[in-house]
Amino acid sequence: MVKICCIGAGYVGGPTMAVIALKCPSIEVAVVDISVPRINAWNSDQLPIYEPGLEDVVKQCRGKNLFFSTDVEKHVSEADIIFVSVNTPTKTRGLGAGKAADLTYWESAARMIADVSKSNKIVVEKSTVPVKTAEAIEKILTHNSKGIHFQILSNPEFLAEGTAIQDLLKPDRVLIGGRETPGGRKAIQALKDVYAQWVPEDRIIATNLWSAELSKLAANAFLAQRISSVNAMSALCEATGADVSQVSHAVGKDSRIGPKFLNASVGFGGSCFQKDILNLIYICECNGLPEVANYWKQVIKVNDYQKNRFVNRVVSSMFNTVSGKKIAALGFAFKKDTGDTRETPAIDVCKGLLGDGARVSIYDPQVSEDQIQRDLSMNKFDWDHPLHLQPMSPTAVKQVSVVWDAYVATKDAHGICILTEWDEFKTLDYQRIYDNMRKPAFVFDGRNIVNVKKLREIGFIVYSIGKPLDPWLKDMPAMA
Questions:
Q1: CATH (residue range 221-474)
Q2: Domain 3-199 is classified in which CATH homologous superfamily?
Q3: Binding site as annotated, residues
Q4: What pLDDT does residue 391 have?
Q5: In this structure, are residues 38 and 387 in contact, taking their beta carbons and an 8 Å threshold?
Q6: Membrane-spanning residues where (predicted)?
């Protein structure tokens, strides 16, 4: 029986291993992590992450051929294939601070694999890692190998949160990068055989190691660049009276461009986009390519500009101050159908409003109060370290209240900011909300999900990103 072990029970490791277990009943899959609370959650009825369809898959396999354990060394030593899915946070100090990936967790995982291995292993990079990580890992393993052979593969994940299970069941492509040697080719084939049990052969692509590592960074950079492109257009649309939805619809009809990732919003978030682009920038700089680095820097700059623009619009619309005013934030996760708040634009928007003295009332159907308070009090890249290395008890931000109902969040508020496109926000009773708000009542739609015409008829002053401006907003221009 082939045994697979995955180090890291997070957003990538958990769902990926659950689907492998489901589709390969003859393979024993173990997911290991040093965090006891996280493993306990995977073994309970309340999984540590929310992802549509994940619970069903886990329940079908758990205890049969899918196991969650804190006994890291036992499962690593027994495994034939080891997936490594540990955190790769952005460095906050030292060489490459603010851009380069911190490979501390990767390195300790590699050293532990070398220490406990008694048989040949295939080690698979699953976390997003900078180009040439495989080479570094390979060096650690070979220099500590005690006569055991290790093959390193890069198998980047291309999951979108909210649709991760579907993405795993029906992937666009599975990318496997390995050494172009007999041992490397054999290792690639072994991993191919796992995926081939449910993924069509023509969707499994084999490349060299560097191409696989770079493809992941490139894919995320291209997607983020599309979002920044349409967000840059949204600012121009507001200035000229054009409608960004109409512009992106027209652009998306061009078959060379296509319609996906062309929705204007308050900005992109998630654990990968910013981190991967920063990584790409660092690699470009290290390789003497400043012009290429500057091109990708601009994608992040436009994203930051979009979040700042949104906050400025809120403040300027309300007589240039939100001090002491209650603002309701609907949504905190970085996108709908996930409880993930990593790099969510909501953090910067809420911090911006708090900086101007607002009282912020937050409602999100999937994000806990503890998580929101943690995010608002943490330093920039802290979120990407394992939970036990994050600040233990975040200082609660006093002007923030977290509630479990959109109507409570909006009661007595001066304005509403829609920051996540949860479906339920489209069907709220906005007449009831308007009646219970301070007047003039504002809606700032950061996701373009509300019916602007209907809300204006109720009496709201509505700001929708990239849409023709309400006369009120034209009289109170936002300072950039």
A1: 3.40.50.720
A2: NAD(P)-binding Rossmann-like Domain (3.40.50.720)
A3: 8-13, 33, 38, 86-90, 127-128, 161, 272-275, 342
A4: 54
A5: yes
A6: none
Categorize the per-residue pLDDT at 129 as very low, low, confident or very high, splitting at 50, 70 and 90: low
- Long-range contacts at 94-103 (CB < 8 A, ≥ 24 apart): 96/282, 98/278, 99/278, 99/279, 99/281, 99/282, 99/285, 100/130, 100/278, 100/279, 100/282, 101/129, 101/130, 101/133, 101/275, 101/279, 103/129, 103/130, 103/133, 103/136
| pLDDT above 90 for 288 | yes
415 in Cβ contact with 314 (< 8 Å): yes
Cis amide bond preceding 345, omega within 30: no
Tokens 């029970």 appear where? 9
Q: Where do runs of H (alpha helix) occur along 200-272?
A: 209-240, 244-252
Tokens for 236, please give them. 């121009």
The pLDDT of 435-448, averaged and rounded, is: 97
Inter-CA distances, 287 with 91, 93, 97, 215, 460, Å = 19, 21, 17, 17, 53
Token couple for 116:
């406990």
Q: Of 237, 272, 284, 417, which is the active-site residue?
A: 272
